[in-house]
């Protein structure tokens, strides 16, 4: 659960380096803003439907997504801090389906670590497939 700030209270931000070298010098900026509202598919019940394509992942069957403002549900399947997930759904059209997650051209894989899981059942009681 994210930290909840008290309106009107002053908070202090500490910025530091964690390397062994002393006297480091690096310019940077600090910005504080209000986060965006959670996306509509922030929870299982609001999962965005994805159309299953028969010819691979072409633009017509790619559902766009964002984690901006998303909250998370922690579980033991992924590593790291699961604090920002969104949900999608699809109806299987074959006993074998390929799930591909694409990144925009401006995002490099080294700057974005993600995990995905596939569930069956309903939002109130589902089973996870380990991928």
Reconstruct the topology from this structure.
Blueprint: E1 48-49, E2 88-89, E3 118-122, E4 125-129
Parallel strand pairs: 1-2
Antiparallel strand pairs: 3-4
Describe the structure.
By secondary structure, the protein is low in regular secondary structure. 0% of the residues lie in helices and 11% in strands. The chain is built from no helices and 4 strands. The protein has strands at residues 48-49, 88-89, 118-122, 125-129. The strands form 2 sheets. Strands 1-2 form a two-stranded parallel ribbon. A two-stranded antiparallel sheet has the order 3-4. Strand 3 and strand 4 (125-129) form a beta hairpin. The radius of gyration is 19 Å and the shape is elongated. The chain starts with 47 loop residues before the first strand and ends with a strand. The model has no long low-confidence stretch (mean pLDDT 75).
Record keyword descriptors for this entry.
two-stranded parallel ribbon; 131 residues; two-stranded antiparallel ribbon; little secondary structure
């Amino acid at each position: 659960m994210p930290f909840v700030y008290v309106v009107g209270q002053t908070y202090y931000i500490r910025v530091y380096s964690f390397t062994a070298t002393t006297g480091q010098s690096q310019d940077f900026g600090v910005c504080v803003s209000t986060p965006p509202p959670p996306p509509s598919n922030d929870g299982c019940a609001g999962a965005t439907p994805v159309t299953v394509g028969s010819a691979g992942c072409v633009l017509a069957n790619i559902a766009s997504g964002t984690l901006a403002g998303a909250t998370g549900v922690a579980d033991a399947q992924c590593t790291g801090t699961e604090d920002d997930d969104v949900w999608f759904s699809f109806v299987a059209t074959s006993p074998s389906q390929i799930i591909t997650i694409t990144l925009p051209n401006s995002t490099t894989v080294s700057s974005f670590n993600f995990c995905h899981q596939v569930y069956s059942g309903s939002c109130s009681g589902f089973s996870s497939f380990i991928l």
